Amino acid sequence: MRLIPFATATLIVLATFAAQAHDFQAGVLKIGHPWSRATPKGAAVGAGYLTVTNNGSVPDRLVSVSVPGVADKVEVHEMSMKDGVMTMRPASGGLIVPPGGTLSLAPGGYHLMLMGLKAALKEGDRLKGTLVFEKAGSVDVVFNVEGMNAQHPPPDDKTPGMSDHKM
Ligand SMILES: [Cu+2]
Predict the structure, then answer these.
(1) Can you give the residue range of the structural domain that contains 95?
(2) How far, in Å, is the centroid of ligand 1 from the Cα of 20?
(3) Are 105 and 111 in contact (CB under 8 A)?
């Protein structure tokens, strides 16, 4: 039974370290700095960004994300140029994380779309969410909400009918 206090202490140390570095581990996957942007009052959608590094030898896949109590549902979106216009759409089948590689969700590219926000996201908020991977399973993460203009302003979203969808 002497192992139990030791294991508990180790877990506390690891948890403290993870909180400082703002990384999360799921098996061979390392999730780096999940973050979101503050939203204007009344906005129906928000965005989420993070990186996933695969230290294993086989591909994995980010299949779904939830941020309960904050958004009704979360979609994984990809952006692409179509007829010179940047559009976004759900990434069908999720996003692959190649072995030895990093999947980046960042402004202007792949991102999470938080649909049906219950309230505006405020800078400094911490949003608890869950990522689900095909092989690594589910992992709880925390999205840090940064300022409305944080990092890399995205290209203007000119998609018809998506005026509330500037991510
Ligand atoms: Cu989107």
Answers:
(1) 24-146
(2) 29
(3) yes
4 belongs to a structural domain: no
Could you tell me which residues come within 8 angstroms of residue 131 by beta carbon, excluding any fewer than 6 positions away? Answer: 26, 31, 52, 62, 64, 65, 138, 139, 141
List the CATH number of the domain containing 129: 2.60.40.1890
Give residue-wise pLDDT tens across range 143-153: 999 998 886 43
Residue 10: what pLDDT? 53
Structure tokens at 57: 């030898």
Q: Is residue 7 part of a domain?
A: no
Distance between CA 32 and CA 104 in Å, rounded?
9
Q: Tell me the Cα Rg of the chain.
A: 17
Q: Is residue 17 a part of any domain in this protein?
A: no
Number of folded domains in the chain? 1
Cα 149 to averaged position of ligand 1 atoms, centre (Å)? 17
* Torsion sign (Cα): 111, 30, 37, 41: positive
CA of 80 to the centre of ligand 1 (A): 11
pLDDT digits (tens, 9 = 90+) for 51-70: 999 999 999 999 999 999 99
